[in-house]
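Suppose you are handed only these lines of text.
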Amino acid sequence: MAGEPQDDCLFCKIVAGQVPATVVRETDTTVAFRDINPQAPTHVLVIPKAHYKDAAALAAAAPDLAADVLRETQAVADEEKLESYRIVFNTGSGAGQTVWHAHAHVLGGRGLQWPPG
Ligand code: 5GP
Ligand code: ZN
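From them, the structure of the protein bound to guanosine-5'-monophosphate can be written out as follows.
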C-alpha cells in the first residue's frame, strides 16, 4: 500500500532506527539527517517517514506530506545558517537517483554553480 514501509529500503530502515544516521531534525512526519557522502559543507537529506519511491510519487499521493518535507528543508537551512542553498530532488536513475525513497537534498555552505551539470 502507498506509504507503507518497505523491507528492502535503506531510508525506511533509517526511519525505523535499524540503520544509524546523524539525525539533525525530526518531526511527526519527517526525518532530516546528514548525507553519508557530503557534496558540500552542509548536505542534509530530508525524507518523509512514509515510503514513496520518489518526489513525483510523494507529491501525487500525499501533497500535504510533500509540503512537510519542503518546510523541513527550510528549517534545516535556517538551523545551519545557510544564506544560500540548493534543494534537489533527483528523480529517476538518469538524474542520479540511487535510493528509491523520496528525499530532498539540502546543499549549502559553498558556492554552487548553475547549471549543475
Ligand atoms: P540520490 O542519489 O538517490 O539522490 O541520493 C541518495 C543519497 O543518499 C546520496 O547522496 C548518498 O550519499 C546518500 N546515502 C546513501 N547511503 C546512505 C546511508 O547509509 N546513510 C546516509 N546518511 N546517507 C546515505
Ligand atoms: Zn523507504
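What can we learn from it? The pocket of zinc ion (ligand 2) is lined by residues 6, 9, 11-12, 51, 101 (CB under 6 Å). The helical segments are 10-16, 55-61, 63-79.
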